[in-house]
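Pasting as-is:
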Amino acid sequence: MSTVSMQIEMDLRNKLVENAIETRGMSHKLMVSLASELAMDIMPIDHILRSHSMTQAEFDALIRRDIFQQLYREALLAWGATASASTRIKAKMETSLEMALPELYKEIVKEGLTAAKVELVKTFMKGGGIGERTSGGTSEGGVQIVINMDAQKPAVTIDATPISRDAEDL
């Protein structure tokens, strides 16, 4: 590494440390979490702030900090690099379903269960990959093995049906 490159890297680290100190005790973990949630653009900002017990004024001060801006840029790049749009949509559907559950439950029990309410819940569940198995399998039972070796590659799913053996075959 050249002397100039080393000096630039050292200056950058010093600036990041100074900015971290300026955040007055806000943990790096909290800033990463906020940056990630904002980059995903799943929940409204006011909901994100409430979930982290943060005021709008604190948030406004935070987003002006260089360290937070860098974390946000990194989160945007990471979210955009997610394997596929379907992965991002699934994450948004799961989060939307989770956020909607309290209200959905109130509506369902309020005036009884209707076909429309059931279909709405099914749609959210299907979009979030929750509930019914989407691949093969049988209603008589079986085994499903999911192999997930790398976050960059899709999981491999193996469905198997047990072989029934009679006593005389053994």
